[in-house]
Amino acid sequence: MTNAQFSPPKQKIKVLLLEGIHPSAAKVFRDQGYELIEQRSQALSEEELLEIIPNVHVLGIRSATQITPAVIAAGKQLMTIGCFCIGTNQVDLQAAKKAGIPVFNAPFSNTRSVAELVIGHVIYLLRGIAEKNTMAHRGQWLKSAKGSHEIRGKVIGIVGYGRIGTQVGILAEALGMQALFYDPIAQLNLGNTRLAASLPDLLSRSDVVTLHVPETADTKNMIGSKEIALMKPGAKLINLSRGSVVDIEAAAVALENGQLGGGAFDVFPEEPSSNKHPFISDLQQFENVILTPHIGGSTEEAQENIGLEVAKKLIAYSDNGSTAMSVNFPEVELPPQRGKRRLLHIHHNQPGVLAALHEILAKTGGNIAAEYLQTDTEIGYVVIDIDANDNPLNQQMIEAIPGTLKVRVLH
Hints:
The protein is an alpha/beta fold. The protein has three domains: 1-110 and 299-329, Rossmann fold (3-Layer(aba) Sandwich); 111-291, NAD(P)-binding Rossmann-like Domain (Rossmann fold), CATH 3.40.50; 333-411, Alpha-Beta Plaits. It is 31% helix and 20% strand. The chain has 13 helices and 16 strands. It has a seven-stranded parallel β-sheet, with helices on both faces. Helix 4 links the parallel strand 4 and strand 5 (103-104). Helix 1 packs parallel to helix 11 (300-320) and helix 5 (111-127) packs across helix 7 (163-174).
């Protein structure tokens, strides 16, 4: 086997980091021996990506860059994609999987930042700060206790009790609130947080409702006119999850007639693609609504942690083939590669692939020192460590195995 058939050495692997990803990511790559690192502050259009992606091995994006099937097809050398954020809906995960490209994200690093902002919104909404602040900027002095409340003793309803929802519950309880949660998936409650019997039950009992659910077909417009009508008159609504979760038109109607006593929205069904484009929403007319530009996890601490978390996952895959915590790929957590030649074989999950691979290795005299295999319903991922002093691998024969999607051989 020639050197050209091996995965490139670190010094020749091109890493492209878009959308102003925190410098901590580039530092991690450099500390691990990667040299070809390009950083850009903006997202790229599909046309721009199609031009540059053929020479990229590792791609890092945030939420604005869209990775379409066309981009993935053009990425002939693309090994892996990192989403330096929580969501991954900006990547066609199925197309990436079929191309043998694992995708990684950062599901943990900004949970505290989002949870803290929720608590800040709760305090501001219950004290009527948004309206008082707006009027003060206009020169009006609204010094009144009417409609202004402490959060102590109030009920916060948490829809979606995952990583962020649990943090919100802990912080809210520490400030004296009563916390309810609803999640269709069974979750262990923390502290004194209590499970609501249903979503309608939670909505009817809560002074403040905060949403922390993913974007799925089931969550699209899950808070509409019917659900808002179940809430206490004057209750507050907070959405720092996904823009599709709330029916904005229904929320605007409820704010107009007073059923909703205020709200805080950080995500929207349609968002500007950059800071240069205008933001338009039906919610802009309401002084008791806090609007923020999708910054729930945008703290310097969170962005630094996200940079570290995702970069380490990308490097683990590039260096030794580990796919632990991938969002679209069979997860294989691998030990370091020590004195062995490591073969990574990604294939359709169909009978006979592993047998054919073993047959080829037997014919070439390769001794298998270790083997790791994981599959899902569509693809299989096998990693084989072979004694380095054995005969060269026949990569052409391996690539010719029916069902093969991608083959990498690590130095």
